[in-house]
């Protein structure tokens, strides 16, 4: 029986240092983007962070790698907030509202960071995939029967397709909303989130009613 290898303390400390340094660089990049704008250069980001471009390239390879890391940090924050909110949401429908609200608040907290994170296909895919996952989980909680697989959707359930469509719906409304913060008639994040959640659930309700009527016929 072979002995369990003992972790090398130096390697463990070095990995911890690299993780911490990477997280610090992501925070510095977010701060630079927030102040300067989504078209900020790597040179400007490095200067704002008090380091050189080569350090950022060492950790992220290129600007797209940094954009993807910033996007992932936003998703991680969003997921943590949703988990906390999910524990206190009185109903699954309220959980759906909370998901939309967290997204709107995250985007509105820094439109520059949001636009920087979603400016490339890889970054946008991170948002799309994770938002679809959050939304699919929410709809399956609201309407458990949507988990069932129907023969005509090629093994993907209705919640999956609803979530994919809902991502575009939520994003389009959210991006239009954050684009005009000075509008005197602008809805609050809570008002818009409540309306979006209501529209989304109404669509699900109408499908359920149509399906039940078809079965009765």
Please name the CATH topology of the largest domain.
Tetracycline Repressor, domain 2
Radius of gyration: 21 Å
Structural class: mainly alpha
The overall number of domains is: 2
Please report the total strand number as a whole number: 0
Question: What integer is the average pLDDT?
Answer: 82
Order of helices and strands: HHHHHHHHH
Helix content: over 70%
Low-confidence parts, pLDDT < 50 over ≥5 residues?
A: none
Estimate what percentage of residues fall within beta strands.
under 5%
Q: Briefly, what CATH class of the largest domain?
A: Mainly Alpha
| Structural shape | globular
Keywords: DNA-binding, Transcription, Transcription regulation
Organism: Enteractinococcus helveticum
Domain HTH tetR-type: 19-78
DNA-binding region: 41-60
């Amino acid at each position: 029986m072979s002995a369990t290898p003992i972790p090398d303390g130096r390697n463990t400390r070095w990995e911890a240092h690299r993780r911490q340094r990477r997280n610090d660089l992501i925070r510095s990049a977010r701060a630079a983007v927030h102040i300067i704008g989504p078209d900020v250069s790597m040179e400007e980001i490095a200067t704002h962070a008090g380091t050189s471009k080569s350090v950022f390239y060492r950790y992220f390879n290129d600007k797209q790698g940094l954009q993807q890391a910033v996007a992932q940090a936003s998703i991680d924050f969003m997921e943590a907030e949703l988990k906390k909110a999910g524990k206190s949401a009185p109903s699954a429908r309220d959980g759906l509202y909370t998901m939309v609200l967290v997204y709107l608040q995250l985007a509105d907290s820094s439109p520059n960071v949001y636009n920087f994170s979603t400016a490339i296909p890889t970054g946008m895919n991170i948002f799309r995939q994770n938002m679809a996952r959050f939304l699919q989980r929410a709809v399956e909680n609201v309407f458990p029967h949507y988990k069932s697989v129907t023969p005509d959707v090629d093994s993907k359930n209705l919640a999956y397709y609803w979530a994919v469509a809902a991502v575009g719906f939520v994003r389009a409304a959210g991006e239009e909303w954050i684009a005009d913060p000075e509008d005197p008639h602008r809805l609050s994040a809570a008002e818009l989130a409540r309306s979006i959640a209501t529209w989304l659930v109404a669509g699900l309700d109408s499908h359920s009613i149509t399906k039940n009527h078809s079965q009765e016929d």
